């Protein structure tokens, strides 16, 4: 008899859970995920603080009393540098803050903003007699600036700012250069700028940078999140070993291709098991997931 | 009645209305500071409208907010409530994270970054632990970002005058909220064998939480009337 044989248990075998080796790996992975997300939040917080501090600096601009159509060189360069991480909404906030301080909304204008003393909510503006030249504008909108020219200058900058927040901008986007409508017009500056422009065309380094940026764009580089992403993506060139071979122009093959060319997806023709499918088609509605 | 006199009467009436409004906000903010556990004299809290007008109104009935400000110190009870109990690992816990409070009414048509920055500088220069700024208009969103930026120096809370016209905790539908000390909190968690995240929650932006100045991680005991049990206490964790 098989009495010596132990009866076989019908219960599930216990697995060592959590397995020590895999739980260590899991803990590591969890930690990595946590650190990754914490890093994203950190960069975001830092950028937001940066924007706040820049806004505070720009509240007291300009540092010199040069008019807005010919700002001082230092002010113009700092303004361009400080505005880089701004979104249009941040820029709007800056304009509002400047208006609270009774300054023109354009950061390089030393004049106070216009004040409407009539107490009207809306204003007519227009130049000549034609009806379409006239507009009804909210007075608050007009009080943002000292003049129409300054409004143009400020909004010229606004449209150059990127809509996406600075912490998730792509590598290419974050190197956008901001232009002013009225650049500083001092003599040395124009010369310096010309020199810079000259450099831009000649310098191999600049060219290289541009090339890299283009490549990043082509690859779909996603900025910070992808560069330091959880998934380690390595791009490898495909190494083709066999001899290149000219496409054949066989008559039969070609005609076969023509018949189902409309089905081709980027050159590949998907083939379905049509016979099988037809056999089952009318059978059972409940089984249609079974292909 | 001449037009001149008419205008004067109207101005006086508007001034009276404004004075009554400010008095109510003034009373609520005092009650709030007292309810949080700071020491205030009874006559300061229960100031009548007449006294308020004598003190803060100019001759033409206009309220001058420039001197509507006061400070208060935490009472011993409050210090005890905010203190950290000593443990075996840490026999000398840090001092309670509480200190003198400063309340100020701000008279401005727009409140921007500059106003809040000056307020924060004033608080840290005079070693105030907490500051309450009461404005008549909404503060711009970018100015509100100053508050977390200076959070490690001083704690700023902002209120709108409009929200202080009535004391919400005196409403019959608002149950009584009692802040638990750290000791009481750990006793509660031990009694019910809970982690603090397993408690029901209350938001920091909740009107009552703002009134009490709750901080993240604190627990309030909420005592409601109950038809069957007489009183019913529940606990909420501030998040």
UniProtKB/TrEMBL annotation, chain A:
UniProt keyword annotation of Iron-sulfur present: no
Region feature Disordered, mapped onto this chain: 1-30, 267-291
Keywords for this protein: Hydrolase, Metal-binding, Nucleus, Protein phosphatase, Zinc, Zinc-finger
Alphabetized PROSITE patterns for the sequence: ZF_RTR1
Catalytic reaction equation(s): O-phospho-L-threonyl-[protein] + H2O = L-threonyl-[protein] + phosphate; O-phospho-L-seryl-[protein] + H2O = L-seryl-[protein] + phosphate
Write the Enzyme Commission number(s) for this entry.
3.1.3.16
Q: Which domain of life is it from?
A: Eukaryota
Q: Where is the composition biased (Basic and acidic residues)?
A: 274-291
Pfam families xrefs: RPAP2_Rtr1
Q: What is its main location?
A: nucleus
One Gene Ontology cellular component annotation held by this UniProt entry? nucleus
The protein's GO terms of the molecular function aspect are: RNA polymerase core enzyme binding; RNA polymerase II CTD heptapeptide repeat phosphatase activity; zinc ion binding
Primary enzyme class: hydrolase
Q: What does UniProt give as the signal peptide span?
A: none
Q: Report the locations given in the UniProt record.
A: Nucleus
Similarity section: Belongs to the RPAP2 family.
Q: What does this protein do?
A: Putative RNA polymerase II subunit B1 C-terminal domain (CTD) phosphatase involved in RNA polymerase II transcription regulation.
**PANTHER family given in the database record:** RNA POLYMERASE II SUBUNIT B1 CTD PHOSPHATASE RPAP2-RELATED (PTHR14732)
What name has this protein been given in UniProt? RNA polymerase II subunit B1 CTD phosphatase RPAP2 homolog
Native organism is: Hymenoscyphus albidus
Automatic annotation (TrEMBL), chain B:
For this record, the Gene Ontology CC terms, alphabetical, are: RNA polymerase I complex; RNA polymerase II, core complex; RNA polymerase III complex
Is Transcription among this UniProt entry's keywords?
Answer: yes
| Entries under InterPro entries matching the protein | Arch_Rpo5/euc_Rpb5, RNA_pol_Rpb5_N, RNA_pol_Rpb5_N_sf, RNA_pol_subH/Rpb5_C, RNA_pol_subH/Rpb5_CS, RPB5-like_sf
| Keyword Transferase found | no
Q: Which residues form the RNA polymerase Rpb5 N-terminal domain?
A: 17-121
Please name the Gene3D superfamilies in this protein's record: RNA polymerase, Rpb5, N-terminal domain, RPB5-like RNA polymerase subunit
Keyword entries, A-Z = Nucleus, Transcription
Q: Where in the cell is it found?
A: Nucleus
Gene Ontology terms: biological process: transcription elongation by RNA polymerase I; transcription initiation at RNA polymerase II promoter; tRNA transcription by RNA polymerase III
Q: Which domain of life is it from?
A: Eukaryota
For the RNA polymerase subunit H/Rpb5 C-terminal domain, which residue ranges apply? 166-238
NCBIfam families reported for this sequence: PRK09570.1 (NF007129)
Q: Which PANTHER family match?
A: DNA-DIRECTED RNA POLYMERASES I, II, AND III SUBUNIT RPABC1
Q: Which family does it belong to?
A: Belongs to the archaeal Rpo5/eukaryotic RPB5 RNA polymerase subunit family.
> Can you say what this protein is called?
DNA-directed RNA polymerases I, II, and III subunit RPABC1
Kindly list the organism's lineage.
Eukaryota, Fungi, Dikarya, Ascomycota, Pezizomycotina
């Amino acid at each position: 008899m098989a009495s010596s044989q132990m009866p076989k248990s019908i219960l599930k075998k216990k697995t060592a859970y959590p397995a020590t080796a895999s739980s260590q790996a899991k803990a590591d992975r969890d930690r990595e995920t946590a650190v990754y997300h914490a890093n994203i939040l950190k960069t975001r917080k830092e950028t937001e603080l940066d924007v706040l501090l820049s806004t505070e600096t720009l509240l007291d601009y300009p540092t010199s009393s040069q008019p807005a159509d010919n700002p001082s060189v230092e002010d113009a360069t700092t303004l361009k540098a400080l505005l880089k991480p701004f979104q249009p909404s941040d820029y709007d906030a800056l304009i509002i803050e400047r208006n609270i301080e009774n300054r023109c909304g354009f950061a390089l204008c030393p004049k106070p903003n216009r004040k409407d003393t009539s107490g009207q909510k809306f204003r007519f503006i227009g130049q000549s007699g034609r009806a379409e030249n006239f507009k009804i504008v909210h007075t608050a909108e007009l009080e943002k600036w000292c003049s129409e020219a300054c409004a143009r200058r400020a909004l010229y900058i606004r449209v150059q700012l990127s809509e996406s927040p600075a912490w998730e901008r792509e590598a290419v986007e974050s190197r956008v250069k901001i232009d002013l409508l009225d650049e500083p017009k001092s003599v040395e500056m124009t010369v310096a700028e010309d020199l810079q422009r000259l450099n831009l065309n000649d310098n191999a380094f600049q060219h290289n940078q541009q090339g890299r940026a283009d490549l990043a764009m082509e690859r779909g580089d996603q900025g910070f999140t992808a560069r330091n992403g959880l998934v380690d993506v390595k791009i490898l060139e495909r190494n083709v070993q066999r001899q290149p071979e000219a496409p054949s122009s066989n008559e039969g093959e070609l005609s076969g291709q023509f018949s189902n060319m409309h089905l081709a997806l980027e050159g590949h023709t998907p083939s379905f098991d049509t016979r099988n499918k037809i056999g089952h088609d009318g059978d059972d509605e409940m089984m249609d997931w079974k292909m | 009645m001449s037009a001149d006199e008419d205008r004067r009467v109207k101005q006086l009436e508007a001034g009276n209305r404004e004075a009554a409004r400010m008095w109510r906000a003034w009373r609520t903010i005092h009650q709030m500071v007292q309810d949080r556990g700071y020491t205030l004299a009874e006559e300061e809290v229960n100031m009548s409208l007449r006294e308020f007008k004598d003190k803060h109104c100019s001759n033409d009935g206009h309220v001058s907010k420039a001197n509507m400000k006061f400070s208060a110190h935490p009472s011993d009870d409050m210090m005890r409530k905010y203190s950290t109990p000593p443990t075996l690992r840490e026999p000398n816990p840090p001092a309670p994270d509480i200190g003198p409070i400063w309340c100020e009414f701000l008279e401005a048509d727009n409140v921007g970054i500059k106003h809040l920055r000056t307020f924060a500088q004033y608080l840290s220069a005079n070693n105030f632990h907490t500051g309450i700024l009461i404005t008549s208009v909404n503060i711009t969103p970018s100015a509100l970002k100053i508050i977390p930026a200076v959070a490690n120096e001083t704690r700023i809370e902002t209120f709108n005058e409009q929200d202080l016209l009535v004391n919400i905790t005196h409403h019959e539908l608002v149950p009584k909220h009692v802040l638990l000390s750290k000791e009481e909190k750990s006793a509660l968690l031990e009694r019910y064998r809970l982690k603090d995240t397993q408690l029901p929650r209350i938001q920091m932006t909740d009107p009552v939480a703002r009134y009490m100045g709750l901080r993240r991680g604190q627990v309030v005991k909420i005592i409601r009337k109950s038809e069957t049990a007489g009183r019913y206490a529940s606990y909420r964790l501030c998040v």
